[in-house]
Amino acid sequence: MANPVPGLAGALAAAVAYGAASVLQGVAARRTRGGDSLDPRLLLRLVRQAPYVAGLGLDLAGFALSVVALRTLPLFAVEAAVASSIGVTALLAAAVLHQVPTRREAAALCGVGAGLLLLAASAAPDRPAALPRAGAWAVLGGAALLAVAARPAGRLAGERAGILLGALAGLAFGGVGVAARAVRVPHPFWHGVADPLVLALAAYGLLGTLLYATALQRGTVTTATAALFAAETVAPASVGLALLHDHARPGLGPLALAGFLVTLAGCLVLTRYAAVDDARASPSA
What we know:
Elements: H1 4-31, H2 41-46, H3 50-70, H4 75-83, H5 85-96, H6 103-122, H7 133-153, H8 159-182, H9 196-218, H10 221-243, H11 253-269
Helix pairs in contact: 1-3, 1-4, 1-5, 1-9, 4-10, 4-11, 6-11, 7-8, 7-9, 8-9, 8-10, 9-10
């Protein structure tokens, strides 16, 4: 059985990177002109803003760290740990934006920490089961289906659009997690360029980035982030259990389930902290 320490350290470090990135990207998205559809040019406008570029850099660092975790830990543990990045956002909001957490939110922070401890104790560190070639192509095909489903969603407006686009972004980032967990690094490594799982990593990553940026403009950051966390945490965890043979330590399945649910619930309570002060982040033309 693999050593769980590097995976746990990578997952928690990724949460720190993602938490800081969400603050920076929320500021940039509110300052950038949007469109009436799902427009890739939005990303070109966003990368002209220093906060967004800094946030992308942190996202890339978080992704690299999460890949380290996914090589040995099951998806349900890593995705829950990454979702705890909202706790990092909460602490940053308290320190930078002077948003003092309520008792309920402080309890949610404690719940996230307790849930992560339960997951750390119960998750069985191991290599994932190998996906057959057809399964790898199916993962890549899922990115195309998600892109098709996202097009009509991109034409919607208002709070519901933000929720739907946030959930679709969560599915896309969940696809990144599934591909990263299942991919095998060949020797020499450049032979992996044509691997459908490597292509899926790029496709899901770009699609998720565009969907989340659009969701931040259509609705509140709070609801978009809540929908993203729910989809990103639950969907890949189910795939990992069903197809990649992810599992808890023998006899600790109920403990793992409790840790997963407590962590997810705490993260959803804390999504208020994903909302960057609109007075500091007013949109510009």
